[in-house]
Amino acid sequence: MQRQALEAYLKDYLQIDRFKDYAPNGLQVEGRDEIRTIVTGVTACQALIDRAIELGADALLVHHGFFWKNEPATIVGMKQRRIKALLAHDISLFGYHLPLDGHSVIGNNARLGEVIGFDNVRIVEQVPQNLLWRAELTVPVTPAQFMARITERLGREPIHLAAEKTQISSVAWCTGGAQDYIDTAYELGVDAFISGEASERTFHSAVEQNVHYFAAGHHATERYGIEALGKHLADKFGLLHHFVDIDNPI
Ligand SMILES: [Zn+2]
């Protein structure tokens, strides 16, 4: 398919105009016009770009792309090497940040709920852009059981900041670096909150508000959306798709 057709489809499918974001959503680096092979991955790091080159990608689609609002605008050093590699191989880079977190079917939050296997899932309407989700557990579990389930499903042990509650029957989550939503989770009255990372202050929020917090990994919680997006595009447009998981302990 044509690069411009892919870009236009994703703009509509991910409802990009609905989101206020810190990075441009869509085409960030322009490569060749014809797209047959796509590679997806979480972050446009050098290792992912190198794999995309090896796999003969025409386009690389990521959750964490380039040109964040707070970063220097210059193209030097690490950023120069990454962009140079893409341009040298005529590979387009597409980045989708919040629109990929919030998408109701293939988004990171939707997919994380499926991967962990939550029931009665819904979007928390008070928080804009579909960024906070919640579920009621059909059978309440102990914090240890809850932890074991996340560990098993994500293949990675979370950091657990324990509260006093002995049972978990409701949970909220937001993938990535959204630990500060723990205070919103408390206001919602849920027993547990899941995000990717933890800050020093997160510990006190968990203890003082009696909400179990699980930092399940920024990378680990955001692997599923971009992979699902790649599969969706492969099915819809007959593209060849490779999801590449460059492991990251954070
Ligand atoms: Zn993220």
What does this structure look like?
The chain is of the alpha/beta class. The protein folds into 2 domains: 3-96, 3-Layer(aba) Sandwich (Udp-n-acetylmuramoylalanyl-d-glutamate--2,6- Diaminopimelate Ligase, Chain: A, domain 1), CATH 3.40.1390.30; 108-218, Udp-n-acetylmuramoylalanyl-d-glutamate--2,6- Diaminopimelate Ligase, Chain: A, domain 1, CATH 3.40.1390.30. The protein has 10 helices and 11 strands. It has helices at 3-13, 46-54, 77-88, 98-102, 108-116, 143-154, 182-188, 200-209, 218-221, 223-237, and strands spanning 26-29, 37-43, 59-64, 92-95, 121-123, 133-141, 159-161, 168-173, 192-195, 212-215, 240-243. A 6-stranded mixed beta sheet has the order 5-6-8-9-10-7. Strands 1-4-3-2-11 form a 5-stranded mixed beta sheet, sandwiched between helices. Strand 3, helix 3 and strand 4 (92-95) form a beta-alpha-beta unit. Helix 2 packs parallel to helix 3 and helix 5 (108-116) packs across helix 10. The longest helix is centred in the last third of the chain and has 15 residues, at 223-237. The two termini are 35 Å apart. Bound molecules: zinc ion. Residues 63-64, 176-177, 218, 222 line the site of zinc ion (ZN). This is Nif3-like dinuclear metal center hexameric protein. It comes from Shewanella electrica. Belongs to the GTP cyclohydrolase I type 2/NIF3 family. It holds the Pfam family DUF34_NIF3. InterPro entries: DUF34/NIF3, DUF34/NIF3_sf.
